[in-house]
Design goal:
By secondary structure, the protein is an alpha/beta fold. The chain contains five helices and eleven strands; from the N terminus they run βαββαβββαββββααβ. The strands form two sheets. Strands 1, 2, 6, 7, 8, 9, 10 and 11 form an eight-stranded mixed β-sheet that branches. Strands 4-3-5 form a three-stranded mixed β-sheet, covered by helices on one side. Helix 3 packs across helix 5. The longest helix has 18 residues. The two termini are 30 Å apart. It is found in: Mitochondrion. Pathway: Protein modification; protein lipoylation via endogenous pathway; protein N(6)-(lipoyl)lysine from octanoyl-[acyl-carrier-protein]: step 1/2.
């Protein structure tokens, strides 16, 4: 018996504030919870205005640290995703899959691993040898090129991945990215020694996602 491939709609949000992107995610989550079917599965693609976000895997972030980061010109948000503190900003391709895992496999561990494999496959298309590590995300050596932090409730996913393309990496100097001491961050541009805008990475990421999740992408 042939299993039908899940359909996933691709939505391009452009450059958008983190607050606005959260609202869009919440709208799509509600559509899933109000529906008895496997649709609509959606990939939200965007870049953010500078923002530092904190996940749920830590004690409350010190108010003085929050104020210090805001003084740099970035927003600051506490979120319900996994993971610790990270940065999002221009030049970083952010992908928020809002999926019903019942259409794929009802396993959060499987889902996170598939996201990692998607990015590794995409990096290989650029000639970059990326890998996983005991720490979540995708790495090139000891430098993280893509952060992954998700939320999953009733098998509906939100949040997702952030791939550094031609991000201003100095923003990461103000934090310990993802709370991992002794390791750094990198980008497609840094690894390739040339400017790699998000638009160049989008088709490769979508191709890898299609293959890894065995789905059909639908474009607006």
């Amino acid at each position: 018996m042939t299993v039908a491939r899940a359909a996933v709609k691709v939505v391009r949000l452009g450059r958008i504030s983190y607050r606005s992107a959260l609202k869009v995610q919440q709208q799509h989550i509600k559509q899933h919870l109000d529906s008895s079917s496997c649709s609509p599965n959606t990939l939200l693609l965007c870049e953010h205005e500078p923002v530092y976000t904190v996940g749920i895997r830590r004690a409350p972030y010190p108010p003085e640290e929050e104020q210090r980061l805001k003084a740099l010109g970035a927003d600051f948000f506490r979120t319900n995703r996994g993971g610790l503190i990270t940065f999002h900003g221009p030049g970083q391709l952010v992908c928020y899959p809002v999926l019903n895992l019942a259409c794929f496999k009802k396993s959060v561990r499987w889902y996170v691993c598939e996201l990692e494999r998607t990015v590794i496959k995409m990096c290989s298309q650029f000639g970059i040898e990326a890998c996983t590590s005991p720490d979540t995300g995708v790495w090139v050596g000891d430098n993280k090129i893509c952060a992954i932090g998700i939320h999953c409730g009733r098998y509906i996913t939100s949040h997702g991945l952030a791939l550094n393309c031609n991000t201003d990496m100095s923003w990461f100097d103000n934090i310990v990215p993802c709370g991992i001491v002794g390791k750094g961050v990198t980008s497609l541009s840094r690894e390739l020694g040339r400017d790699v805008p998000t638009e160049e990475a989008v088709p490769k990421l979508l191709e890898a996602f299609t293959e890894q999740f065995n789905c059909t992408l639908i474009y607006n």
